[in-house]
Design goal:
The complex is a heterodimer of chains A (314) and B (315). Chain A has 314 residues and is an alpha/beta fold. Chain A is built from six helices and 14 strands. With 315 residues, chain B is an alpha/beta fold. Helices cover 23% and strands 26% of the residues of chain B. The chains are: A alpha/beta (314), B alpha/beta (315). Chain B: Keywords: Cytoplasm, Hydrolase, Metal-binding, Nucleus, Zinc. Chain B: It is found in: Cytoplasm; Nucleus.
């Protein structure tokens, strides 16, 4: 088994309200700030910065004010000049880059944990934009062993860092904690509990890692994003002509085989999955994706091998 | 004395409307109404005008509950008589237009029946909402629908509470009925929820056609849940919530809530118990749109309403 020494993670940021109506993160951040006020800076074993990423959207309980903030963190958007007509979220993304970055620099925060909810039945899904960050993948493996009352899955995209458009790409290591199903604008106690536990365990791992614990490597099963599928639409009006089929609804990460039902049209027909390749659907029927033309995404299941890691001693 | 003296003769229900999009992010009704505007075959019935109608088109366009103010609270006498001036909230203007088209509310020219289609994030299943315990036509229709849906259940919520009753879009009609189906997140269309709502409407229109054709409906009883009280979240001095609906109460719409049962869970893990003396039946538990209306859930009590036999009045 390969053995790798990696630098300690000096500072972590927990971000909630990147989408203002995804409430678990908003209330986890609020509760952490209350704990810090009550118990002082030593409340966590490592330094943690708590951030409400999109305060205006949180105030109005909307996903965003002008534009989706979680698409504003590409190199280009972070460096574009700000004018009076710049969208609110672009300005705010640049502020967050100053606070937690600069993206790509050695001064950037070591870890960002960005908290999100989805209307899809995805349990706890850890989303990371590359396949080669051993720290993040070890945290995912740790969460999978410690959290057993809900499915914990790892989803990887495959972007080079400069193209990565989301908040967690600002720090050296980063991932999204996505918990569902929860309607936007609602806080469910069971979902909040899962989110809080995942954040606490992440802090716990970082502390153990920094203190010298050896984390054994091994195989990590991940889902890698392949492509998106839109709803059937009327060719003229572009309005929906079908809903997610009841046999697909709520079955995120199931095995989708050729001939399986995908959509049930309003006139009573079933639209089936026609492709030969067996893939796994996720973000099935996410409210925020109707406007992006996405009914669900498809992923391939892979096994990644990660090395044993230990903190590098100075 | 013959029981035939207890038949209520009621006016034919000739004009019916189906409203979708009173809240622009409640997708079942919006989708059904848009579909029926394109092709009304499914909702056509003999001797009946059925008009599908999008009540709040701007909110539907934006996929938000409302633009300026909640349309489903805008049908008060004050709002409906507000003068036409610049700067009126969009929904106030719209309420006045709807009152012109389907009312005037309280007059003999008003539409006979309006079905107002809603979704909720609460686990209420299929629910029919009544505003009066003495509207025989509505009670008989609800009884018919429930029987037709069995073994699938359909709850009936009665909001006749003097303070908590509100001026709904459908209240413009002589016989207003709310259809509330959940759970469904705002902005999402779930196939099973959509089909449930579609089936309820099919049975409702069948009833109206039968009634209009002269069928007599015998006396019946309807089990209802009568609105009692609105329960808010615990809040701090700034008005922010300090607790969530407790996991034991979450999703338990229509189930008994007894004194001492868990009600809320604070963010730091403390349980707040229900202190009321009597058993209540909570509903609208954790509805997204009600955080801003200071409501975590509503309490109801169970009641059995009786309805006379009805038949269409002879001309």
């Amino acid at each position: 088994m390969a053995f790798v020494f990696l630098p300690a993670l000096a500072r972590m940021a927990v971000c909630g309200g990147t989408h203002g109506n995804e409430l678990s993160g908003v209330y986890v951040v609020q509760e952490m700030e209350r704990q810090r006020k009550e118990k002082g800076e030593g409340v966590w074993p490592i330094p943690v910065t708590t951030v409400l990423s999109n305060p205006r959207a949180v105030k109005e309980c909307r996903r965003y004010i002008d534009t989706d903030m979680n698409r504003c963190f590409t190199r280009d958007t972070l460096s574009c000049p700000i004018t009076d007509s710049s969208p609110y979220e672009v300005r705010r993304a640049q502020e967050l880059n100053n606070l937690l970055g600069l993206k790509g620099s050695t001064d950037a925060t070591d870890m960002i944990c960005d908290l999100h909810n989805t209307t899809s039945n995805m349990g706890l899904t850890l989303i990371h934009y590359t396949t080669s960050d051993w720290v993040t993948l070890h945290i995912c493996k740790y969460l999978q062993t410690k959290i057993t009352n809900v499915p914990v899955r790892v989803l990887v995209l495959d972007f080079p860092i400069c193209d990565a458009y989301n908040l967690e790409s600002v720090s050296k290591h980063g991932f999204t904690l996505e918990v569902g199903p929860q309607p936007h604008g609602v806080i469910r106690a069971d979902i909040y509990k899962i989110m809080k536990e995942a954040v606490d365990l992440t802090i716990d791992w970082i502390h153990k890692f920094n203190s010298g614990t050896v984390f054994e490597g091994g195989d990590v099963e991940v889902f890698k994003f392949i492509k998106s599928v839109d709803y059937p639409r009327d060719p003229e009006t572009r309005s929906l002509t079908a809903a997610i089929h009841p046999q697909l609804q709520d079955r995120d990460f199931c095995l989708l085989k050729q001939g399986d039902p995908l959509f049930f049209t309003f006139s009573g027909e079933t639209v089936k999955y026609e492709e030969e390749e067996t893939l796994h659907p996720f973000f099935i029927n996410e409210a925020a994706y109707y406007e992006k033309g996405i009914a669900f995404h498809l992923a391939k299941k892979l096994t990644l091998t990660i090395p044993t890691v230990q903190v590098q001693k100075d | 004395m013959s029981s035939r003296t207890n038949i209520s003769c009621l006016q034919e229900a000739a004009r019916v409307a189906i409203f979708g999009g009173t809240h622009g992010n409640e997708m079942s009704g919006i989708t059904l109404v848009n579909m029926w505007i394109q092709n009304s075959a499914e909702i056509e019935r003999n001797r009946l005008v059925v008009k599908p109608f999008i009540s709040n088109p701007r909110a539907v366009e934006k996929c938000s509950r409302y633009i300026d103010t909640d349309l489903n609270r805008a049908f008060t006498p004050e709002t409906l008589s507000a003068p036409d001036v610049e700067g009126l909230p969009y929904e106030v203007q719209r309420a006045k237009e709807i009152n012109q088209m389907f009312g005037p509310k309280g007059s003999s020219d008003a539409y006979d029946v309006i079905f107002d289609l809603h979704n909720t994030t609460s686990n209420m299943g299929s629910t029919l909402i009544l505003e009066s315990s003495t509207d025989l036509f509505n009670l008989q229709m609800v009884h018919y629908i429930k029987k037709a849906l069995a073994p699938h259940t359909c709850s009936v919520l009665l909001n006749e509470h003097p303070q908590l009753k509100y001026s709904t879009t459908r209240s413009v009609a002589k016989h207003p009925i709310g259809l509330e189906v959940g759970p469904q997140p705002q902005g999402v269309l779930r196939s099973n929820v959509f089909e449930s709502m579609r089936t309820i409407l099919k049975h409702a229109l069948d009833f109206i056609q039968l009634f209009n054709s002269g069928v007599e409906f015998p006396p019946c009883t309807v089990d209802v849940f009568r609105v009692q009280e609105r329960m808010d979240y615990p809040r701090d001095t700034n008005g922010n919530i300090t607790a969530m609906v407790h996991p034991h109460l979450q999703d338990c719409d229509w189930e008994p809530l007894n004194h001492g049962d868990p009600m809320f869970l604070t963010f730091d893990g403390r349980t707040v118990l229900y202190e009321g003396a009597n058993t209540v039946y909570p509903t609208f538990i954790n509805e997204a749109a009600y955080y801003e209306k200071q409501q975590a859930f509503m309490t109801t009590c169970r009641e059995i309403l009786a309805a006379n036999a009805i038949r269409k009045a002879c001309k």
